[in-house]
Each structure stands twice: as C-alpha cells, then as structure tokens.
Amino acid sequence: MSYSASRLRTLSITLIGCLIVAGCAASAKNSIFFGKTEPPRDNILRYVSGSEPETIDPQIPNAQNEARICLALYEGLAEYDPKTSEAIPALAERWEVNKDSSEFVFHLRHDGRFSNGDPITARDFVYTIRRGLTPETGSRTASFAYPIKYAQAFNESDVLVFDPATKIYLLEKDFEEGNSQTLAAMPLSSLPFKSIAEEYPVAPAGNSAMDTAFHQFMHSPARLVLPKSEKDRKKILDKNPKLNNAVAGKQFVPVKAEDVGVEAVDDYTLRISLSQPAPYFIGMMPHQFFRVLHQKTIEKFGPAWTDAANIVTSGPFKLESWKYYDRIVVTRNPMYWDAGNVKLDKIIFYLLAENTTMMSLYKAGELDATYNHTVPSAWLDVIGPLKDFMDAPEAAIDYYNFNTTKGPTADVRVRKALNMSLDKKALADWRHVKALTAMTPDGIFPGYPQPKGDPFDPEKAKRLLAEAGYRDGAGNFDPKKFDATEIELITNPDSNNLSYAEFILAQWKQNLGVTIQLRPMEAKTFFKAQSALDYKGVSRTGYAADYMDPYTFLSIFYTSTGSNGTGWWDPKYVALLDEANRTVDHQQRYQLLAQAEQLLLDAQPVIPLTVGATRSLKKPYLKGFYPNPAMLHPWKFAYIERDQSKWDYGMPSMSN
Amino acid sequence: MLRFIIRRVIVIVPMLFIIVSLTWVLVRLAPGNFYSGEKKLAPAVEKNLREKYGLDKPWYVQYGKVLKNIGRFDFGNSLKYEGQSVNQILLRGLPVSATLGITAYLIALLVGITMGTLAALKPNSWLDYASMTLAMLGISIPNFVLGPLLVLLFSLTLFWFPPALWNGFPSKSLVLPALTLSAIYIAYIARLTRSGMLEVMGSDYIRTARAKGLSERQVVTRHALRGGLLPVVSFSGPALAFLITGTVVVERVFALPGLGNYFINACFNRDEPLIIGIVAFIAISVLVFNLLVDISYAFIDPRIRY
Asked: How far is B251 from B249, CA to CA, in rounded Å?
C-alpha cells in the first residue's frame, strides 16, 4: 500500500514537473507576449465576439456581443472614432446643429451604397429609424431614439386627441401637469393645423425649400399625447379635470410612423427634429440602432432577412456565413463607398464567451484579439506585465446601489458612512484599475469639471453612524447597536463580482466592525430583485457608456425606473440635467452637469467603486485597433502588419 | 415482444407530458425574462416585447400553446434568437453533439471493455491494479478539470491539437473533447466490465464451457463476455442518450456548437421554447434508448424473454 502510494506520488511529481518545464520552455521563446505572435497567412482577422448573437439585425438586441458584429456589417450617419469612440463622419459627410441642439441636418455622401448596389439615401435612414420605433419590431434599444419628436409616443402606441369639428389637435402646453391650477382658467389654444406657419414662422436663411410643411409641423407646439389603453388614459384624465373636459367628444388618433421627427428633405439631406435639446445626440449616431437598413430586403423576407442568402448590408463588410454557436464570417463589401481603404479581406468572429477558452485560443495563435474584461483576474499576474495586454480606462463604471426606500439605508447618514468607510484606493490598486470617486469615470471626458465624492474617512463614518442612532451611552458609535441583519449585499456571481464583494465586506468589518452578509444570486433573479427594489441594503451594479458624454451616466437617475435601482429620485436633479442640455455653451453645460452630479453624490444613493478597464489582449501585429473607451472597434481601420519593426510593443498611442 | 414494445412506447406519452409540464412550471417560476439584463429596458419597450412574444396572454393560453406545439413536434420559435425555430436549432446542434458523443462512446466502449476484461481475467495482478487506478482517476477527475489539463499539455505546450472550436468530423479539434468526454465513461465501463466478468467467470455455465474443452479465448469471447457485459449494456444505453444529446461542460470548455451548449445558454437566457424543446428531445431520447437497451437484453442474454 505504502509502496504504491509513494510510486504514485513520484509519478505525479514527475508529471507536474514536465508540465512546468514544458510551459516555461514555451513561454521563454516569447516572454514579452502571451503565446504565439505569428501573423495569420491571409489578410484575415480572427476576433471573438462573445456569446451567440440574438440576431444580427442591429435594431433588436442591446448587448455588446451583437454590436461587435453589427459594426462590421452596417454603417450609420456617423462612426465611432477608433481611438476616442466619439462620433466621426461616415455615411453623413457633415452635419449642422441648430442653436439649442434640438435639430440636426445631416448631409449624406452621394456614393453610399448597400451591398447589393442600391444607393443609400436619406429615405433609407427615415425608414430605418421609423422601423426601429415600430412597436412590432420589438427593439430593445428603441429608447435611444426617444429624444426625437413623437418617437416615444409612436413606440408606446400612444394617441393624439383630434377635434373633428374644428380640425384641431389638443396641445401639450395647455395641460402641463403641475400647472393645471393656473392653466385651468386659460382657454385652449385654437390653432388649426393649416395656420401653424403663421404663428411659428421658421426663417430658413436663404433656402425656402428647406422649410417644408413637415418642418413647420415639427416646430409647432407639441400635440398632446395620451396612452392608447383606456385604463391608463383614465388614470391621467381623472387627475386633470380640464383635460377630462377637453377630451370629451374628441377622436383619439394613433401616433403614426409619419409623425416621428425624421425627414428626408431631399435624397441626400436628412433632418432630425428632437422634442427637447440633446447636445449628446450626435454621440449616439454611431450606435447600431441608427445604422442604415435595406427596406426592400426586410419587407420581402421578414425575420429571415438576416439569413446569409437574403441579407443586404451597408457597412464595410458583408455576411459570408453564420455557423450558429460557432462563428460568423464577414467578407469585404466591394460596394462600400470607402472599400479602397478597407484593409482586411475577412473577419472571423468566434461566438464564444468562456474567458479561459479565449485565453487558450489566443495563446495558441488562433485569435488575434479579445474583447474587454476577458483576461481572468487570476491570470493578471502573468499577463499583466506583457506587451500585448491592453489595459486602458473604459467609459464604464462599477458601483453599488443603496435601497433608499427601506431599512437603515433609507438614512442618508448611513449611506454616507458606508461609502466613507471604504478604502477605494486599496480596492482599485488590488484590481489594477482606477478608483471611481464620482458617478462619471475620471479622465474619459476631457474638460468636464468632475465633482469629487466624500474621501475615505472611517472616523467620520463612525460619527455619522452615531448620529444616526447607533451609539452607546457615551454617544460613541457602537457596532453592536447596528443591526447588520437589516442590510445585505446582493450580487450576481459573474466574473469578479464575488471577490469585489468580499473585499468590500472585509473593509466594513475592519473599519466599522459591522458584519454584513453577502447574498449571491443567479443573474436574472438578481436583476429582477434589483430593479424591483426587492433587496435589503446594497446591490452590485455597473454601467457602460452608451455614448461619449457624461450625461450617459447621469441619466441613469433621470427616471425612478429602469436602471435606477435605488429608489432615489429628485426633481431638482432632473431640472439641473434639463437645464444643462438646454445650454448652448459647451463648458457652461458641463458646469451644470457637474452641479447635478454633485447633488447626486450628496444624496449618496450609490457607492462609486472603480472605473472600468479594457483588460483585453491584442497581438502586436494587429494595427488600427485600439483599446478605446467604448471597446467597440470600427473594423475598416484594422489591419495585419507584417513588418515586425512596425508592431506594437505595448499599448498603441491613443491620441489622434 | 411486440406487446412489450407497444406498451413501452405508449408510456412515453404521459411521461413526456409530465416532463414538459414540470419544465414549463420551473421556467415560469424562475425570476427574470429572456430580455432582462444589466441594462434595463424602457417600460414601453418591455411592453412591446411582451406583446410581440405573447407573454401578455393568460397562463393557460401560453401553456396550451406549448402542449399544442409538442403534439405537433414543432417547438415554436426561440425567444432569444430572433427568427430561429427551436427545431432548426435542434437539428443544428444534434449532429455536433452526436458526432462528439458517438466518438467518445466508441472510445469508451473499446478502452473500457478491454481494460475491464483484462483486469477481470487476472484479478489482483499489476494489470488489474493499473486499470482500476486509471478508472478511479477517470471517475474522480471531473471533466472541467481534465479538459483544461489536456489543453494545457497538448495545445498550449506541445501545440499538437487546437484548444477549442469545431471543425467537423474527422478533425484534430475533435480529439481533446472526445478524450475528455470519454474518460469518465471509460472508467465506469471498465469497472462494470470487471465486476460483471468476475461474477460470470465463476458461474456454472462457464465451468460447463471449460469442461467441454473450449479454449480460454473462446470461453471469454463467446460465453463470458455476453453475460459479463449486461451491466455495461444497461449503463451504456442511457449513457449514449446523454452523450448524443449534448454534454454541457465539455461543449462549453471547448466552445463546441452542440446541444449541451445551447441548453445551458437557453436556461441562462430563460429562452422558454428552447428549454422545453431540448428537454423534450432529451427525454424522448432517454426513453427510447432505455427501450432499446431492454430489447437488446433479449438478444444478448438468452435467459431473458419478454
């Protein structure tokens, strides 16, 4: 018995030894890079796009794994800058913005073509945006277009109120909520549709053709919009007697696609009118929702239009094949207007999401780059120092939500204390990332006067908790008085969430002496609990920018629903954001946004933790591909460099 | 025999009904939805989605639709994957899983039976100890450990086989997943063969066969194996069903486009039609393979009659 046991031990030690020696020998060859650095024979990029895409219809899904592929297949008015992720001209050569950022005129290039040769005109963009907003399309990202006039109403299947006798639509301004007292006495605006131009003359400087009837309609006062369902409508009417009276005997007319504020002024001029100023709107244009689609193909094939046999695309690449759960291959689109500058012949997207599998494929030289957060934490010690490790700051934040509606965390002093007793610097250093001190990531938006949240101060935290009632006879903070069962930390167990949580709980234990329980939950269960505020105390969350503007992060708390998840909502905060977006001067707008952010930080519905980091790999021979803040790559710029002297030995320069 | 088969086939129907209903209830009990995620949807967007996929209908209407679909062997459309039917997905994943499963199954039978027989013929010899140690290792090392270990050795150090991805049959990329998958089955089959053979080798009819003067080789292959393999047969029927219908861990580790990978993702995605489709498919396969096993008993062991 002892004989065989020792034999087995010898055997296993030898085996492990062999593995280590072999491993060292393999890595010694290329110690500055992770694995093989042999460029692929052909001009083919092999990338990994994440889990199987729900569809490659760009308007339906809302996740990055689809976006990575859609960026190759479709193009919009604007494209992401490969380094900064800001909007750069694409199918629109240039654009004009009106004074308060509520109307955008895009001038399209005349040589834009779909992959079947059809020209791309302003009408295709009108179709695309209307189609994305059509309720039956089921777009997850339709709310991206909500700044456009009547877009939300159309997507929500709302109705307008029409008086058949006078041919007048009721107007929103006559019934504004909160003002109903003063407005109640005022007569209704009596503007027949035909005479709008008289009251709201839009002076089109020198170009009267631009001032179409539709344009006048867009600039006439907003029509009143009510829910289609009678039950929901009744709730609103009951609250507003004036409205209730006005609606009697009127017709309810559904909001139509034609009402949405997108207009093809001519073949190559597209005008988008918003319902309120949105200076960040241009930044949204590269989003896949706004990438142009081919109307005839979609109408002919229905949901099967994305099949390789049917699909017509507008981007630098077209679909060659889609092997489900395996790979999507896209190939150069010769009809693309800038085809001469597209350097890759093909891109292979492997449809997999296992980080360790990706690392193996990358090391074995079967992959040329990976997407963000793919290097597992446990591997950072090995991969971190290597020259092909890409670790730039990302326009993404990790933070914790407080449930501000119940329990001890309803008290702002408790929230502040829990925030102040965390050493975020230590957390950030441990994870090799930057600490997040506010609601917006530091260093992503140049010129933004970002406010700072409370610094690490455990003593002040204890004083705050003592003030909040958790104190002994002498008035000092007493951890025993703090009922830790009233608070728990919930998280989905994905990726690094659990180790983050353990670090933070240990900090609270160490700095405050309170033991808070960790409750991991399966992802979907967790998301539901969080958005329904069905949790005690603290829940993990994060947010990746939808466009490059601080507003993308601040708008999380614009409504009390959606991604909010804290129960905190303040009309003063919303008013500040609205005022900021109405402000024409860029720097002044930033000031107002920063004021709003300060208000948010004072209320402390969240604990900011860390700024995202790209944490990905890229072979040195892959050029024109950068760890940009959105980690979305416009593929036309990427190429394989065979001259070793031009390779990237480290992070490529990110400045333009 | 025929009556037995008919009776067993009829039993499949209520079994399937129970399995599908249970699955449906469990999917419904799980919180979250196919569209819920880190980024929350606007309320109107969510409402549009619920209408589009009929989730706003009462539960009995939705349940009735599920049953009607199963009755026609058409599992409807996936919720997660726009415009793809569950049947399409099953037909796509099955060949991959089946290729991998059958390869692993054949390796397991060949290696397992050989190892088990050798061990049984010379009990307590070094051969016996060696095969049983290997079998023990095969049972105790889970495949999510074995897979990456094989990858580390054969793809990242020796660069012999690719570490993942699917390149059809036959290809180098099949080697590591098939080996990983077969390890535990080799182990079980070896142990089952050994104990089955040991029992049979001591039985009366083997003594009779020897007494008739047959060579040891003939005794083993003609008489002992037939009886000794019965436990292996009853094990390998359902095992084959599970191997063919997808193996979650191995397909994930090696990123193979098989049913197991679809299944696990369908659960995470709350893709109800796809979950029910795959469960029903696996259930039917297991029931059918069990039936086949029972039928094959009659041919292998002359003592069994239906």
From this structure: 6
Q: Do residue A142 and residue B159 have CB atoms under 8 angstroms apart?
A: no
> Helices A571-582 and A586-603: crossing angle, nearest 10°?
170
Q: Pick B52's closest partner by Cβ from A136, A325, A531.
A: A136
Residues of B whose CB is below 8 A from A304: 83
Judged by DSSP in three states, A111 sits in coil
Which candidate from A19, A135, A137 shows the least CB-CB separation from B157? A19
Distance CA A79, CA A89 (A): 6
Instruction: Locate the chain A residue with the closest alpha carbon to B150.
Output: A19
Pairing, β A225-226 against β A251-254: unpaired
Enclosing H/E stretch for A654: none
Please write the tens of the pLDDT for every residue from A431-446.
888 999 899 998 889 8
Q: What's the pLDDT tens digit per position in A325-352?
A: 899 999 999 999 999 999 999 999 999 8
**Helix B143-150 / helix B175-201 crossing angle, nearest 10 deg:** 130
Provide the pLDDT for residue A211.
78
> For residue A541, what are the CA distances in angstroms to A255, A531, A555, A607?
36, 11, 15, 10
Chain B closest-CA separation from residue A537 CA (Å): 19
**Tell me, what's the pLDDT at A484?**
77
A351: Cβ contacts below 8 Å, ≥ 6 apart: A49, A50, A51, A52, A53, A65, A324, A325, A326, A327, A328, B257
Q: Average pLDDT of A28-44? A: 84
State whether A525 and B253 contact (CB < 8 Å): no
Which pLDDT band holds residue A495 (cuts at 50, 70, 90)?
low
Q: What's the complex ipTM? A: 0.80
Beta bridge partners of A517: A488
Q: Are A87 and A286 in contact (CB under 8 A)?
A: yes
- Over residues A247-296, the pLDDT tens digits come to 888 899 999 999 999 999 999 999 999 998 899 999 999 999 999 999 99
Q: Give the integer Cα–Cα distance in Å for A390 and A369.
A: 10
Nearest CB among B41, B156, B268 relative to A140 is that of B41
Contact (CB, 8 A) for A125 and A77: yes
> C-alpha B61: how far from its chain's center?
33
Per-residue pLDDT tens digits for A584-617? 889 999 999 999 999 999 999 999 999 999 999 9
As given in the structure block, the two tokens for residue B67 are: 């049953």
Contact A488, A536 (CB under 8 A): yes
Q: Which chain B residue has the Cα nearest residue A530? A: B38
Q: Which chain B residue lies closest to A542 (C-alpha atoms)?
A: B38
Q: Which of A225-239, A306-320, B209-223, B243-257 holds the top average pLDDT? A: A306-320
